[in-house]
Amino acid sequence: MTYIVTDACVKCKFMDCVEVCPVDCFYEGENFLVIAPDECIDCGVCEPECPVDAIVPDTEDEPDGKWLQVNAEYAKVWPNITVKGTPPADREDFERETGKYEKYFSPKPGKGS
């Protein structure tokens, strides 16, 4: 098992999760974070830190494994992030919106840390 970041993170990117990760397995996109499945040690400390419940075990992924694939793909190309940055100023406007990945996801990398 591994943990994965899902749709709720898009355009919110609070980043509270990155500072508690003992193995630094978060990677930053322009408006989304992902977890590197091969690096995650399944400790679960990141899950309760997310204020929008975007982090779940991969056992709660969609039937087609969509989020595990997204996390694995972008963890290979985005920079690692280990320190909480500044969340988007308009994050509260998107906190409870659904279907954000299809509407707003950016494949561009973030700054990392």
Automatic annotation (TrEMBL):
InterPro entries for the chain: 4Fe4S_Fe-S-bd (IPR017896), 4Fe4S_Fe_S_CS (IPR017900), 7Fe_ferredoxin (IPR000813), Fd_C (IPR022569), FdxA (IPR054829), RnfB_subfamily (IPR050294)
Record bears the keyword Cell division: no
Cofactor(s) essential for the protein: [4Fe-4S] cluster; [3Fe-4S] cluster
Organism, scientific name: Brevundimonas terrae
Task performed by this protein: Ferredoxins are iron-sulfur proteins that transfer electrons in a wide variety of metabolic reactions.
Protein name (Swiss-Prot/TrEMBL): Ferredoxin
Domain called 4Fe-4S ferredoxin-type: residue spans: 1-30, 31-60
UniProt keyword annotations, A-Z: 3Fe-4S, 4Fe-4S, Electron transport, Iron, Iron-sulfur, Metal-binding, Repeat, Transport
UniProt xrefs under SUPFAM superfamilies: 4Fe-4S ferredoxins
UniProt cross-references to PROSITE patterns, sorted A to Z: 4FE4S_FER_1, 4FE4S_FER_2
